[in-house]
UniProtKB/TrEMBL annotation:
<feature type="repeat" description="ANK">
    <location>
        <begin position="595"/>
        <end position="627"/>
    </location>
</feature>
<dbReference type="GO" id="GO:0004674">
    <property type="term" value="F:protein serine/threonine kinase activity"/>
</dbReference>
<dbReference type="Pfam" id="PF00069">
    <property type="entry name" value="Pkinase"/>
</dbReference>
<dbReference type="Pfam" id="PF12796">
    <property type="entry name" value="Ank_2"/>
</dbReference>
<protein>
    <recommendedName>
        <fullName>non-specific serine/threonine protein kinase</fullName>
        <ecNumber>2.7.11.1</ecNumber>
    </recommendedName>
</protein>
<dbReference type="InterPro" id="IPR011009">
    <property type="entry name" value="Kinase-like_dom_sf"/>
</dbReference>
<keyword id="KW-0723">Serine/threonine-protein kinase</keyword>
<keyword id="KW-0547">Nucleotide-binding</keyword>
<dbReference type="InterPro" id="IPR002110">
    <property type="entry name" value="Ankyrin_rpt"/>
</dbReference>
<keyword id="KW-0808">Transferase</keyword>
<keyword id="KW-0040">ANK repeat</keyword>
<keyword id="KW-0067">ATP-binding</keyword>
<dbReference type="GO" id="GO:0005524">
    <property type="term" value="F:ATP binding"/>
</dbReference>
<feature type="repeat" description="ANK">
    <location>
        <begin position="720"/>
        <end position="748"/>
    </location>
</feature>
<feature type="repeat" description="ANK">
    <location>
        <begin position="766"/>
        <end position="798"/>
    </location>
</feature>
<dbReference type="GO" id="GO:0007010">
    <property type="term" value="P:cytoskeleton organization"/>
</dbReference>
<keyword id="KW-0418">Kinase</keyword>
Length: 838
């Protein structure tokens, strides 16, 4: 044991006298090691170099002192936070219970503008997207209380077991101003010179993540900003504007990046939140609103895209409009745009006050619990009318307390709205919040039930058009649905590819000439003509053939001669010769030189049923194919040519996955009879998860991974049902469903180009279920078919449980349109059933 390890039983570092650093500056935090980490289930301290990981026990002795990490361990993940800025740090050394960090892999830096607490939270990763990481506890310290101590310090893990050793130091920046080159800035979506550009500053000089926004500037505005920064807003659930720098003729305001992404993006992914989770989020938002109202007199600012999550799963209200409101002078102080579903008094032009935020809180809670805004309409221009006039109905399926608080918050008369008489205390006292300790909540002592693992950079506005912005354009159809097959499709039922037909000539026999030069000859029984065949090299040749080819005298034909003869006979149409040649023991599972086809594939492409049967009888494998031709397998070639007889023979010899690929091709070609033949012979309508090649799994230090793993399913593994839906082929959808196609089947990475369709508008539900893409493309009759066959609209998007795949977010307006459309379709079916029974 080292001297440092001997200190693991000591108490955390005692707090020294306060020191006041010169601000701003850079705080460097270094993680060294942790010991005894546990979820609290075990009382005994584990062996430093042995532990259970992933269900199997293994030794770490071989890794002791080694720079390479143990790939079997699930090392804890660490989140280091200072002044709302969070930096995740991965660990690659040590053990699960006693991890260690080496060099710069355990280091992070923060830009410091005010004195606050440093928090280090640790999580045990489950290794699956289907389950949440386990919270191991956190360590807290005020680094500027003992900054003079340069030696590493042991900190106790709160709400868990173990200790962690860290060190930190601070460097004042003096009067130095920040510049663009101090950051690795990435600009998304718009040009650098446009106002409102969002930047993400990652791993720059400060090795922390910040969000920035560009503003037009003048001397007066610059003077205001420089005198007011950092923002005086300081609340556990709000990310403040921290610093600025000039970028050409613009001013970039920056705040800590909420790395958990937009709350309502997670809502889109998970359909809706349960009551406990919704209560937790609404309570934290309520505390932040109380602070903004009482301390800064900021009202009616809250909107969905301003509500994000931090890396732990707590609420983080973000938006540079807060800072603009903070520094604005005079009345009204609101300089921001309308929320999506503003309170009626805002629509009517009445004065802003805190009651408008209680309305927005009710709008949020309703959407969290039901998955769709109360006044949703596909046409944003109609939403304002619904807010003012539509009857407010809360689902009876919600708990009574939830129904009551939503009704109270969404009272159109602000004087009678919940909170009008007793303010925030009246809202907090509602039975919906029963059991919440508000003091514990404001200290962030409640552990969130959900820990996000990605950052979403944008959330679209869909609602009442914002001020200062034109209303959004009406939704565009990806293609004209009156055409079943767009004109740019590469193949249709009327344009199948046929090979040139070769006339069979059975007057020829095969002769082996044993005299020099040895070789095969074709002999015409009618004319006595002979044709010699020159041996040709082929790609597939056994080691025995290679040895035999080097001998000076050959007593039997070798593989080269057999394949050269087979190729010549195929080209000439000498089927009788081919039958005789097979008696010499030809290996049919080879690719014939520049043709690249196998003999069986060649026969299927040329629609020669007798040869297909002959090759199968003599050992040809229908599952032996080629990788660089459009028709990889014989069955695929038979389907492409539309030859049902050959297809029926081959599908009995072909693997399940090849048969389903063939069914996909039949759907692509709108070949109903062929699709029905395949289905009648038991071909399955879906692929299995294991059919796809597993994504590339990079190592911990592998940075070149962008081109080595698929972002979705390969083209051939897009299920036949999705193809029929995208093509708008109602008859094909009906056929597939009648033979057991799963109406709830999911997919990943659907795109036009994978189906050889060139469209500017991408499919928004690139990862989803069949009914999602049907509704997105407004295939309403197909939606009805799917519902009739068991499609469940409450199922979320499927999860591909691999680390290297992330489902692309669906734009909020599209997701809501699809969800609202599906609910309307289900309601219409129920009404129809009721009318029939009545």
């Amino acid at each position: 044991m080292t001297e440092d390890n001997d200190k693991k039983d000591i108490n955390p570092t005692a707090i020294m006298h306060n020191s006041t650093p010169d601000l701003p500056g850079i705080l460097t935090v270094t993680l060294h090691e942790a010991v005894g980490l546990s979820r609290g289930a075990e009382s005994s301290e584990p062996d430093v170099y042995k532990e259970y990981s992933g269900g199997s026990k293994h030794s770490h002795n071989e890794f002791k002192g080694n720079i390479f990490p143990c790939t079997a361990c699930r090392f804890p993940q660490t989140l280091v936070e200072y002044d709302k800025c969070q930096t995740p740090i991965n660990c690659y050394w040590g053990t699960t219970e006693s991890p260690s960090w080496k060099g710069d892999y355990g280091k992070c830096k923060f830009y410091v503008t005010r004195i606050t607490e440093l928090t280090i939270s640790l999580y045990h990763p489950t290794g699956s997207k289907l389950s949440q990481d386990v919270f191991l506890g956190s360590a807290r310290v005020r680094p500027f209380n003992a900054l003079e101590e340069c030696t590493p310090k042991w900190l106790a893990i709160e709400d868990g077991i173990g200790m962690i050793r860290i060190s930190y130091d601070y460097t004042s920046m003096g009067n130095k101003k920040l510049k663009e080159e101090d950051f690795d800035g990435h600009f998304y979506g718009v040009e650098r010179k446009q106002s409102g550009c969002i930047t993400q500053n990652t791993k720059g000089k400060f090795e922390a993540m910040y969000a920035g926004k560009l503003f037009e500037t003048d001397k007066h505005f610059l003077s205001q900003v420089s005198s007011e920064l950092p923002s005086r807003i300081n609340h556990p659930f709000i990310c403040p504007t921290t610093f600025y720098f000039q970028l050409e003729e613009r001013l970039s305001l920056n705040s800590p990046l909420a790395i958990g992404g937009h709350l309502f993006s997670h809502l889109l992914e998970q359909q809706y939140f349960d009551v406990d989770r919704s209560r937790f989020y609404i309570a934290e938002i309520l505390c932040a609103l109380e602070y903004l109202h009482d301390e800064h007199h900021i009202f009616a600012w809250l909107k969905p895209r301003s509500v994000l999550l931090d890396g732990m799963g707590h609420i983080a209200l973000c938006g540079f409009g807060l800072f603009i409101s903070e520094i604005s002078q005079g009345s009204p102080r609101r300089q921001h745009r309308l929320p999506e579903y503003p309170a009626p008094e805002l629509l009517l032009g009445q004065n802003d006050n805190r009651m408008a935020d209680w309305w927005t809180l009710g709008i949020f809670l309703y959407e969290m619990l039901t998955g769709l805004p109360l006044f949703y309409d596909e046409d944003p221009e109609k939403i304002a009318d619904k807010i003012l006039n539509q009857t407010i109905e809360v689902p009876e399926s919600l708990p009574r307390a939830a129904q009551d608080i939503i009704t109270g918050l969404l009272c159109r008369n602000p004087k009678q709205r919940l909170g009008a008489k007793g303010g925030v205390s009246e809202v907090k006292a509602h039975p919906f919040f029963e059991g919440i300790d508000w003091h514990t909540l404001i200290q962030r002592k409640y552990q969130p039930s959900f820990k996000p693992n990605y950052y979403s950079s944008h959330l679209e506005h869909h609602g009442v058009p914002e001020s200062l912005e034109p209303p959004p354009s009406p939704p565009l159809l990806p293609f004209n649905l009156t055409r079943r097959y767009p004109e740019h499709r590469s193949y249709t039922s009327a344009s199948r590819t046929h090979q040139v037909f070769i006339q069979t000539d059975n007057n020829w026999d095969l002769i082996w000439e044993d005299s020099h030069p040895q070789g095969f000859q074709f002999y015409n029984r009618a004319t006595g003509e002979k044709q010699s065949i020159l041996p040709q090299a082929v790609e597939s040749i056994t080691s025995e053939d290679a040895v035999q080819a080097n001998e000076t005298y050959i007593t039997v034909p070798d593989q080269r001669q057999k394949l050269a003869t087979l190729k010549e006979a195929l080209q000439a149409g000498y089927d009788n010769v081919i039958s005789q040649l097979l008696g010499y023991g030809v290996n049919l599972n080879v690719r014939m030189d520049e043709w690249r086809e196998t003999p069986l594939l060649w026969a299927a492409q040329h629609e020669n049923l007798s040869l297909v049967r002959l090759f199968l009888e003599n050992g040809a494998d229908a599952n032996y194919g080629t990788s660089n031709l459009e028709d990889q397998y014989a069955l695929i070639a038979a389907v492409r040519t539309g030859n049902q007889q050959i297809a029926e023979v081959l599908l009995k010899k072909s693997r399940r996955v090849i048969c389903t690929i063939a069914l996909s091709l039949a759907v692509d070609q709108n070949d109903g009879p062929m699709a029905k033949l395949l289905l009648e012979n038991g071909v399955r309508c879906e692929f299995e998860e294991t059919d796809r090649n597993p994504p590339y799994e990079p190592g911990p230090f592998d940075t070149d991974t962008c081109c080595h793993f698929p972002v979705g399913e390969e083209e051939e593994f897009i299920h036949p049902l999705f193809r029929a839906i995208v093509y708008g082929n109602e008859d094909m959808v009906r056929l597939l469903l009648s033979y057991g196609a799963d109406a709830n089947v999911g997919y990943h990475g659907l795109a036009w180009y994978k189906l050889k369709m060139d469209r500017e508008e991408r499919i928004k539900f690139e990862c989803g279920r069949a009914i999602h893409v049907a509704m997105e493309l407004r295939q309403h009759k197909i939606v009805e078919l799917l519902l009739e066959n068991g499609a469940d609209i409450n199922l979320g998007r499927p999860i591909w449980d691999v680390r290297t795949h992330s489902c692309k977010l669906v734009p909020r307006d599209v997701f809501q349109r699809v969800r609202a459309g599906l609910r309307a379709a289900v309601a219409a079916r129920e009404e129809k059933k009721t009318a029939v029974t009545a």
